[in-house]
Give the backbone structure.
Amino acid sequence: MKRPRGGSPERLPDPSNPPDERLLALAGQHLKQFGAAQVTVVGIADAAGMTHANVYRYFASKAALIDAVAGQWLKRVETLIAAIADAPDPADDKLERLLQAWARTHRDLLRDDPHLFDVYCAATQTRRAIVRRHRARMRQLTERVLDEGTVTGKFDPRDRDRALLLITDVTFRFINPVSIRLDGEMPDDLADQRMAALIRVVLRALAKGYV
């Protein structure tokens, strides 16, 4: 088993998996250990037991491969949030859990995989396609809960678009990765408390028709 420089042994992906999945798994490991600047297509190809030219059959560039790794994490976030949005709970409870979970996944990523967090920050700042698609999907999930709350009487917004903007604006500091990085030293319990206070404001505004 190959040992990356200065680290623990690599966990080689299941050789029965499709080549693109194996390459993504290895790229994720290399990114977590070395950071994007130190990841090389040659190193990933060598770990996968193929030529670097073979890698380009599946990913057009190193940047595309790294973005695909970030895209996998974003998909996992979307799956988590979709499960909350589809739950049978009342809409106000769901919106609270959705926003708390959304914020917490970002803080967890910053702590557990800071190199991947750096990629996500860069993709956000440059408005890359993976982030634009992710934002659209998260907006759809938030809209679903807001609309459900309106139908069931939990929410009474005067203007749907303004209500969505309120949710976005109030939670920006706890969901935008650039802002989260600036607050990186904030303890999780304090971040949860501050987020919870803002969510209470949002829920009251939606219930009372302030927006």
